[in-house]
Amino acid sequence: MCRFYSGFFYQQELLKKYDYYWRVESDVDFYCDIDFDPFVYIKENDIKYGFTLVLYEEMITIPTLWDTVKNFIRTFPHSIENDSIIEFITDDNGANFEIADLNLWRGEAYTKFFNFLDKTGRFFYEWWRDAPIHTIAAALFLKKHQVHFFEEIGYHHRPFLNCPKGNKFQHKCLCNPDDSMENNNMIGKKSDCILRYHRFSPKTEITGISGTS
């Protein structure tokens, strides 16, 4: 399944007429009113990859993935976007919530990247999930402003939660921001991925979303 979602789902005949997709897991909860169209938002703002949760991967499950990625970077340095957010993923991490542009995966850079990974055969021997592979690819090939954190979407994939902070969200959400990953000491190391994103992403105002401007 992970190999399919990493390198083949976007090539399916049923998806050829579409430019965008939203990955929704079967066991998740959405705790906030979504009063805007995420697809319109990412199209109008030139966003190619959006997320709400990003988790650190357990290195025991992907012992050779990051070394393989670094080997790709050394082999194809000109494929890497100069204005990328590569610092965001210097530790392997991934997101299981995605709103993204299908043409990112259909493009030459990602095709070269997936084929490079696939030739190692490690999809069959390690847990190379599509989540970290997509996140790494977005960080390598996209400009900083093209990667977006959808803070305003309250999202729960047990045991991980993103619950937006601020008075502007209180009337729209049923979750407690204190339970979000970055405030949950029980999660430990996994909690600082969003903080890393904010550290390396451009500081821009969210526009075009009701209640957030």
Question: Would you write up a description of this structure?
Answer:
Keywords: Transferase. GO terms for molecular function: alpha-1,2-mannosyltransferase activity. The chain is α+β, with helices and mostly antiparallel strands and 213 residues long. It has one domain: Spore Coat Polysaccharide Biosynthesis Protein SpsA, Chain A, CATH 3.90.550.10. The protein has helices at residues 2-7, 38-44, 65-75, 102-106, 108-118, 130-141, 167-170, 193-200; strands at 20-23, 29-30, 49-51, 55-56, 93-94, 98-101, 147-149, 155-157, 160-162. The strands form three sheets. It has a four-stranded mixed sheet with strand order 1-6-3-7, with helices on both faces. A hairpin with a 2-residue loop joins strand 8 (155-157) and strand 9 (160-162). It starts with a helix and ends in a 13-residue tail after the last helix.
Distance between the termini: 39 Å
Count of DSSP strands: 9
Annotated CATH topology: Spore Coat Polysaccharide Biosynthesis Protein SpsA, Chain A
Based on secondary structure, the structural category is alpha+beta
- What's the helical proportion of residues? 25-40%
Q: What's the shape? A: globular
Would you identify the CATH architecture? Alpha-Beta Complex
CATH homologous superfamily descriptor: Spore Coat Polysaccharide Biosynthesis Protein SpsA, Chain A
Keywords: Transferase
Protein name: Glycosyltransferase family 15 protein
Pfam families: Glyco_transf_15
InterPro entries: Glyco_trans_15, Nucleotide-diphossugar_trans
